[in-house]
Amino acid sequence: MLDRTYPLARNLLFRLNAERAHHWSLAGLRFAERCGFLHRMAGGLGPRQPVECMGLSFPNLVGLAAGLDKEGNAIDSFGRLGFGFIEIGTITPRPQNGNPKPRLFRLLRHEAIINRMGFNNPGIKEGAANVRKSTTFQGVIGFNIGKNKETPNEHAVDDYLACMRGAWPVADYIAVNLSSPNTPGLRDLQAADSTARILSRLQEEREQLTRESGRSVPLALKVAPDLEQDDIAALSKVFLDQGLDALIATNTTTAREAVADHPLQTEAGGLSGAPLTKPSTEVIAAFHAELGDKIPIIGVGGIMCAEDALAKINAGARLLQLYTGFIYRGPKLVHDIVNITAEIPS
Question: What gap in Å lies between CA 18 and CA 89, rounded to an integer?
Fold first, then answer.
């Protein structure tokens, strides 16, 4: 039923300001889940096609990318829509409001979004508390972590360490975000030497937390699509040396060539959606050529149909994540991808 009704709901929501529509959608999903209506409409907890990755068992290979459920307060709702894993955040140590509004824009004819949200989130303490409130989701929960805007880059690792400690008890995996274009200077940390220093500290902390807690939490890192081949080669060496558990490729792009004819193309922020389909897939393929099967890749960026998902898998992705494609296509996209990939060996 959701597959049939989503286009109508989308048409109504697209008449609203993009950020307001986002908040109303999340509120509506939470209400529908609490009253049992979402369960009746969705017809269960979503399709299953188990995948093993990072030492974890994923109910299916389709996840919700970070950015849609920033606070982690709609996990059960998104799980009801079919996602096998949900990545919340980006979460920072302290709450922050993000960038001034307006900061979210739809480019309808390009099936794209520009956002400059700026890590608006309630902070790691509340984010972890929200995850604990999830009761029905049976998939994998990831924590996407970042630094606060006012934290200088030379102290950024302290923010990532604080988030790791806060997320550790409730996270199934932790994703390090060094690639958002919406926090000034953040992408400078994506340089190979900076990334190596941060990952080294995080791996040391992870070993300590594993000893103390008796549980191990995999560590992933999310990269930008705007990388040159030399950057990809240098980062790949760092990831292999540091024993990274997974790579998430890719974040949003700052490039505007694909939307140069749109009046909103001058808006600052990261571009996602259909214009990112090809660049993201190319970056996945380039990293896979360097990493082989030693580090699994979670493919994200411009997955607008099942065929886009197959292209990501053929390029080397082990798992997939949706954001903009889900906004434009709805829950049907999740089911279409699970169905079309059902014959791929796990």
Answer: 19
Structure-token pair, residue 161: 């360490």
Which phi and psi (to 5°) does residue 55 adopt? Answer: 80, 10
Provide the mean pLDDT of the chain.
96
Residue 265 resides in a domain: yes
**Tokens 């520009």 sit on residue:** 114
- Its domain, for residue 125, covers 44-340
Confidence of residue 297 (pLDDT cuts 50, 70, 90): very high
Counted domains in the chain? 1
Q: What is the pLDDT of residue 46?
A: 62
Q: Give the CATH number of the domain where residue 276 resides.
A: 3.20.20.70
Q: Which residue in 180, 194, 272, 280 is the catalytic one?
A: 180
**Contact call for residues 156 and 180 (beta carbons, < 8 A):** no
* pTM, two decimal places: 0.97
- The strand pair at 51-53 and 56-58 is best described as antiparallel
CB 297 within 8 A of CB 244: no
Burial 182-203 (b: 16+ CB within 10 A, else e): bbeebbebbebebbbebbeebe
- pLDDT at residue 4 above 90? no
Strands 219-223 and 51-53: unpaired
pLDDT of residue 41: 79
71 three-class SS: coil
The answer to whether residue 294 is domain-embedded is yes
Q: Catalytic: 57?
A: no
